[in-house]
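Bench notes, afternoon.
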Amino acid sequence: MTLQTLAREMMATPALAIVMTLAAYMLALSLYRLMRYPSWAPPMLTGSLLLALFIAVLPVDYDTYYLDAHWLTLLLGPATVGLAVPLYEQFQHIKRLLIPLTVSLLVGSITACAATLAIAWALGLSPDILASLAPKSITTPIAIGVSEGLGGYPGLTAGIVTVTGILAASTIPPLALMLRCHDPRVVGLALGLNGHGLGTARGFGIDAQTGAFASLAMGLNGALSAIVLPWLAGWLGQ
């Protein structure tokens, strides 16, 4: 089988999209290690840029790639559920802080949703763009579903979610140090609430307790936002 024949056969199946995705991630991970793990350049960011370069160079349009690689997003659900394991290990700590955790999550989640929708509405953005921006602080699987339900663009939502996660994961730990906040529960809660999956990954990179509280905040924020966002969007004219 010639190289040209193999390439044509791969383009006719999801294999090319899978190979492109894995290659982009592996290259990004190697670059991340080579640069000594900078918080401002996580593999998800550099991998996305490499993947965009692959799509631009190779004879593959984005719509074809999205259809072929769409099933990969299904793996995000089980990965998110798997975060319940460290969460269970920290359950005794969480149970003792039930009331402050609940209040913090409610205030943080509602504020993040309301502020995003209010700013977008005040700038005169169209309802579909507003719906795409609203789930920016929710983990990707839930954010895409909420965006579709509100009439937004899932691709734009995924990009905004990624940018939000990178900013939160990059700025919250140094900001906590600047404010002399060394409590892993507080840092973890802030990372999960604002940075969803990327923030949670950053939390586990700090320690298990920070990661557990980040995964708690990410999960509860996603569930609460899925309920609150449609109501807020309707109130603002969506």
